[in-house]
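target protein:
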Amino acid sequence: MNNIRATLAIVWRIAVPYFRSEDKLAGRTLLAAVIAIELALVGIDVLVNFWYNRFYNDLQDKNWNGVISGLGLFTILAAINVVLSIYQLYLNQWLQIRWRRWMTSRYLGEWLHGANHYRMQLRGDAADNPDQRIADDVRLFVEQTLGIGVGLLSSIVSLASFVVILWGISAEAPLTMFGREFAIPGYLVWGALIYAIFGTALTQWIGSPLVNLSFEQQRFEADFRFNLVRTRENSEQIALLRGESAERERLSQRFSRVINNWYAIMSRTKRLTAFTQSYAQAAVIFPFILAMPAYFAGKIQLGGLMQTASAFGSVQKALSFFVTIYRTLAEWRAVVARLDGFEMSIDSAAAVAGSAAPIKLASSGGRDAIELDELLVNLPNGAPLVSADGIAIRSRDHVLVTGPSGAGKSTLFRAIAGVWPFGAGEIVIPPKATLMMLPQRPYFPIGALKDAVAYPSPSETFGQEQIAAAVSAVGLPELAQRLDEDTHWNRMLSLGEQQRLGLARALLHAPQYLFLDEATASLDEASEAALYRLLEERLPDTAIVSIGHRSTLVAFHSRRLVLARQGERAVLQVPQSEAAK
């Protein structure tokens, strides 16, 4: 019971915000229309139930006119039912896509807000495969929540409607056994209730493991799909290393988890289906077993018997709602659990950024420099990594940061960019200063080359000619002719070409502070030197801070900072040779 309450509380938390959002009028109207149509369909079922009594009595009495009239009435009811069912499906799908659009936009906004997506990766939170949560689980949540919710409402209304009918029939056709009548008020209702309780209890007992199995299946499927994508994206390195056999073995191991879990689902589903199908078939004959003695005793006619069977079936179906949708219910609970985990992961990542302990980013007022004051950068597990104090990077400075690999140079850049929250101290940045970080492997969104180079700004911000000039300037004149070409540029271009395009992006945006994290490491020294001279010429007002290991980079920087290991952490400091000056 506690699990059910907890699940319903989570569903309420996830679902209700849409119906309070800016799209609430459309959402509430569509939901009301879907519910109203469902109630109308239940009303038609009640009318059809009474039609059974009249039509089969006319058949028994061989009343030709009554039979023809009954067929005409049924045709009208069936036509209304068809029209209502069509429009209910249409409005339901309309509500689904609006609701899904709002939830997707909300999750995208929260996931991508303030580098949350990056912090979630750093923390290793349980919300694996955010792409599946947003693409698949939102869709399943909307579809299944509406399906289960509307179905449950229909069952409740049907139960209330047909219990009254079945109770009345119980009075007209008392329980008859061995020629004796037993006055049991509403015995047909009690029979349906006992039958449904029996079925629901056994279904829960047999099918309860399906909830966890469905959760694990989605996780294993997503993990296998993610590794397939990684193999595709790193196909060149795999081919160069002749790693196809190892990759096949690794992927096969991941897929074996999918297979093994699927076998477990098959086994459990077989047991559940064996029971639910037997239960459904027995439900067809059970009302006749209860009502036939009264029919043969002459208490009711054929129409009454058929009406009894129909009403009993409706009551039993309403009471057995959870039996018939158990598999869907198990999948739905797994979807709810995954979305709950995703939301908690987002909140946890946001809390890290907003807590009092992390590195503080502050405005420097009138000062024209980035300053690191009592800065301590930690690993996510709390271990110290880098410390810096009294370090200033002034406007137009050209600073080279060196140090052993793994000392924390790149992590220091991430802290300055504001995406690394683990640590303490203060980073002071001039007001309205623009910073750009260029890593060793720059990111280019799939699309037109002009959009990839201009990212994150729209390409219209700069214009075709300006983008072409920047691409040509970094040594890629042939790509300047392909700005409208749409492809996966990270996969199509060599790492050296990607680094050149990254610098073209810097030329377009002209930031006040440009941080180059080995952003030219894949280029030969002559090309690297030419590009640094280009940056000096085109971006004279930009402070350039580089991470690099080549001694040739010293010529393009006026200052050096060194990360030197001191105990458990590396300390950023001015080298003694420059301090002496």
